[in-house]
Amino acid sequence: MKKQSSPFNRVDWKTMNRQAQDLLEQLDANFDSRTIMSSLSVAQQQIVEIAKALSSNARIIIMDEPTAPLSNRESEDLYRITQGLRAKGNSVIFISHRFEDMYRLADRVTVLRDGNYVNTWNISDVDDHKMVVAMVGREITQFFPKRDTVPGGEIFRVQGLSRTGYFRDVSFTLRQGEILALTGLVGAGRTEVCESIFGITSYDSGTITLNGKDLDHPQPAEALEEGIGYLPEDRLKQGLVLRWEISKNITLSALKKFIRYGWVDRKRENETSRDLSEKLGVRTQSVHNKVSTLSGGNQQKVIVAKLLTADMKVIILDEPTKGVDVGAKTAIYSIMNDLAAAGYGIIMVSSELPEVLGMSDRVVVMRDGRTAASFETKGATQEQILQAAMRE
């Protein structure tokens, strides 16, 4: 978009808004150019980013993980927009860990691993197996390495939890050493329930019980103190302090443990951070590096390490493998198995049905802010979950 100004160097808002609207209409946007950005959905904000690139007459557009935060329907809209850009002669570099993105859009695919170039293929010459080996550097014989474990007794219960406008009468239990999947369509209220359990938002009615103790509207600090940990869906905004070192992020949730005579015991903090980083396979040269230098998968591991510095009993993982590559996914699944084997109760929020069926012991399906169904994972099917998530 050309700079619009009057002879007195004032912005010509009328012309600027008209040109912006023209660009949005080219992308089939369903909102006005004068809409406040903060009121737009993530998908709509991405349309604005694409329109901004087009305003500068960009012929090459780079999209970095654009489908990671999107629902399937929103991803379909983005595919349509991207294909429209190609038809008009724009070149697109589409960075993604999702094979679906690759098959739907790409002419060629290039794999990078650990910062190094691996290879480039025509899309017609690749399949899932070849891509997994290229991305991970080895064969993965079992993508969902769920161990057969026998969960213990009940340690956590949510009963009749409600928050006006978000969810109502949500109930489920969690056993020691169990991985419980909380699933459903986007907008079903899964994340909102977890945020209320952890105290990020409040709830209107209902009870939360941990090891027989009622937790009355806990704040996040109280939830951590009681033994509830939360890995948020948006790790960059809610899970990490990006400008801080890895070590400071890892010890943040249990900082009291590292205070001595009013000062942080940096030696002990560094030792704990190094031990947990090695245990969880965080790839970094030093725990003193900023967490912003890590890949998405390694950032997820840092958040898990942060939870392990505190004395957790229940760990909530909200879309733990979202936006990470297949190698990091496998590593995160192994970490989940280790946590369950150590006696942690895990609530895994996930939209990926293969992941739900491959990693959980039980499934709770949410629909329109309510618990629609609950069943053992063994013998369950994707069709069964979808029917529970969609039926009226």
Explain this structure.
- With 392 residues, the protein is an alpha/beta fold.
- The protein contains 14 helices and 16 strands.
- Strands 10-13-14-7-15-16 form a 6-stranded mixed β-sheet, sandwiched between helices.
- Helix 10 crosses helix 11.
- The longest helix has 16 residues.
- The chain is globular.
- It starts with 12 loop residues before the first helix and ends with a helix.
- The model has no long low-confidence stretch (mean pLDDT 88).
Topology overview:
Layout: H1 13-26, H2 42-55, E1 60-64, H3 72-87, E2 91-95, H4 99-105, E3 108-113, E4 116-122, H5 128-136, E5 154-163, E6 167-175, E7 179-184, H6 190-198, E8 205-210, E9 213-214, H7 220-226, E10 228-231, H8 235-239, H9 246-251, E11 259-260, E12 263-264, H10 266-280, H11 296-309, E13 314-318, H12 326-341, E14 345-349, H13 353-359, E15 362-367, E16 370-376, H14 382-390
Parallel strand pairs: 1-2, 7-14, 7-15, 10-13, 13-14
Antiparallel strand pairs: 3-4, 5-6, 5-8, 8-9, 11-12, 15-16
Helix pairs in contact: 10-11
Pairing-aware structural class of the strands and helices? alpha/beta
Distance between the termini: 47 Å
Give me the side-by-side strand order of the main sheet: 10-13-14-7-15-16
Largest sheet: 6 strands, mixed
